[in-house]
């Protein structure tokens, strides 16, 4: 990982604005991303666990992760149930 945890979190969280996004990173560099509803800020629209942050070595990997998360979010929108998955 070439960025600090704080920088990586900021990039990912800000990429989902105006929705609220929360990234957590374990000491083992396993990341969890939650994206909350725009009009219902307590509703989780997307929950992805098990993201290997050690593999995010450059802009391309980070952009691919964000694109994948956005795709997952779009696929699960409007169903009232958060999309949950484990990233491998």
If you had to describe this structure to a student in words, what would you say it looks like?
This protein is α+β, with helices and mostly antiparallel strands and 88 residues long. It has one domain. 32% of the residues lie in helices and 28% in strands. It is built from two helices and four strands; from the N terminus they run αβββαβ. Strands 1-2-3-4 form a four-stranded mixed sheet, covered by helices on one side. The chain is globular and about 35 Å long. The two termini are 17 Å apart.
Order of helices and strands: HEEEHE
Structural class: alpha+beta
Radius of gyration over all CA atoms, rounded: 12 Å
- Major sheet: arrangement of strands: 1-2-3-4
Any idea how many domains? 1
Largest sheet: 4 strands, mixed
- Beta-strand residue fraction: 25-35%
Low-pLDDT sequence parts: none
Number of helices: 2
Q: Got a strand count?
A: 4
Coarse shape: globular
Question: Which range best describes the helical content: under 10%, 10-25%, 25-40%, 40-55%, 55-70% or over 70%?
Answer: 25-40%
N/C terminus separation: 17 Å
Mean pLDDT: 86
Attribute tags:
alpha+beta; 2 helices; single chain; 88 residues
Brief write-up:
The chain is built from two helices and four strands, in the order H-E-E-E-H-E. It is α+β, with helices and mostly antiparallel strands and 88 residues long.
Write the layout of secondary structure elements.
Layout: H1 5-14, E1 21-25, E2 30-36, E3 44-52, H2 59-76, E4 83-86
Parallel strand pairs: 3-4
Antiparallel strand pairs: 1-2, 2-3
């Amino acid at each position: 990982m070439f960025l600090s945890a704080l920088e990586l979190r900021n990039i990912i969280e800000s990429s989902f604005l105006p929705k609220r996004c929360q990234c957590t990173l374990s000491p083992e560099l396993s990341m969890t991303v939650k994206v909350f509803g725009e009009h219902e800020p307590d509703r989780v629209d997307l929950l992805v666990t098990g993201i290997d942050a050690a593999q995010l070595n450059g802009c391309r990997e980070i952009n691919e992760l964000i694109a994948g998360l956005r795709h997952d979010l779009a696929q699960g929108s409007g169903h009232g149930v958060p999309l949950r998955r484990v990233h491998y």
